[in-house]
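Q: Got a minute? One more chain.
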Amino acid sequence: MSCEVRPCASPNEQRQALSAIWHYFGRAAPRDEQLESLTRLIPSARMLGAWDDGGVVGGAGAFPFRLTVPGGRLRAAGVSVVGVLPTHRRRGVLSAMMRAQLDACRAQGESVASLWASEDRIYGRYGYGLASLAGEIDMAREHSAFEAPAEPFGRARLVPVPEAEPLVAPIWERVAAVTPGMFDRTAAWWQTRTLVDPDWRRGGGGELRCVVLEADSGPVAYALYRVNFAMERGIATGAVNVVEAVGDSPRATRSIWRYLLDVDLVARVRGGPLPVDHPLFLLTAEPRHLRFALRDGLWVRLVDVGAALAARTYAATGHVVVDVGDAFCPWNAGRWRIGDGGVARTTAEADLRCDVASLGSVYLGGFTWTELAAALRVDEVRSGALERASAIFRTTVAPWCPEIF
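A: Always. Here it is, folded:
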């Protein structure tokens, strides 16, 4: 490959690097407001460009943020806007950008990289493992009754979207701090991504609305949604599209979803991504009518296996020795003792053997070691190790990232 891969040196170079993925969005380059938003969140040094013969042919960016993992948080890279022009497919451009990006993550002290995959066949070869599942609902309102009545909780109030951050950001933070897969949002993130509503983001739908649920203690839940109004022969056929709904307690979550399911003059309520353990399954009287559809969620890559494993907690006593293979980041390869006594390299005999992508799949608790074994993604070297490892890595909350980045 003759391309040069290097960090962008200016916003203009960032625009050129972004043009690779924008080609697949049907445009030659990002709009000015899109570029401004991304440059506020992705520093120039974190946007890589691949240049060939003076022109850009690929780009790859990374949002720096803190990712929640079971029992803690760590510095992580949110990989995004990755693309290679069709003129340079299968010439090693993506591999070169992934090499440079993971090296940069390691130099920055980011022990984990995560992403939403535009194509799910791409990233396994670079050590990313499917780490969570995400769902979408599409529910007819006439089937939205809850299984059991409950006393009303809180007061719902519509808030102008530009004024919402002080009310909703603390709710997000309380939930994000204890939910694996979520990340902390800066004020810049709220103002340039979450709470902006340009026409191109509406997809022909309604304006972004914000409702906040307040209890005596203050705001406890919120939802961002659009009402997509439509009528056919006098009958409402439109939908409420839920962009994000977050509550900091079961009662708050129940109440904010009751609000969304009770919006009048629509036929359906749609929303996602939602976690696989969302309480709507047990709240609704007819959960089949949620029409819950699964897809892959976050993919996780352990950039520094030792630091990443040490940053999370473990549910059971004891330890397991895992022999990890990692051809793309060989500094991770070897045997790791993992458990309540800490994480360290070891020369002890391995209990399990797997590649780093499989380790990424169990890291947030989205999958178990026994599930990996059923898919032939891990070898049990010592009898009983799979059951022991699954108990050690067990989590009580399914990983969830409410935003595709």
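A: The first helix runs from residue 11 to 24.
Q: Perfect, thanks.
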